[in-house]
Amino acid sequence: MSPLSRPRVAAFALAALAALIVWDAAARGLPDPFRFPAAIALGSGAAPTGAHCTAN
Q1: DSSP assignment of 7-42, as one string?
Q2: pLDDT band at 51 (very low <50, low <70, confident <90, very high)
Q3: What gap in Å lies between CA 47 and CA 2, rounded to an integer?
Q4: Residues 6+ apart with CB under 8 A from 46
Q5: C-alpha distances out from residue 11 to 6, 25, 35, Å
Q6: How many CA atoms lie within 13 A of 12 on its CB side?
Q7: CB 37 within 8 A of CB 46
Q8: How far apart are the C-alpha atoms of 33 and 41, rounded to whole Å?
Q9: Using CA atoms, how far apart are residues 44 and 21, in angstroms rounded to an integer?
Q10: For the chain, what is the radius of gyration of the CA atoms?
Q11: How do residues 4-43 score in pLDDT, each as one tens digit?
Q12: pLDDT recorded at residue 24
């Protein structure tokens, strides 16, 4: 069996992804689900900001 078999590479990738998520949560804190905008906010009145298409 080679040292970089498919299951070992998959386990390493999942461990790296989990470490990234834990590091991000520790650095920024967990998101507050009550501060997110609505999933469908058509006609909400909120003006878009921060994109090149908002300069119209």
Answers
A1: HHHHHHHHHHHHHHHHHHHHHH----GGGSPPSS-T
A2: low
A3: 56
A4: 37
A5: 9, 21, 34
A6: 7
A7: yes
A8: 16
A9: 32
A10: 20
A11: 899 999 999 999 999 999 999 899 888 777 777 666 666 6
A12: 92
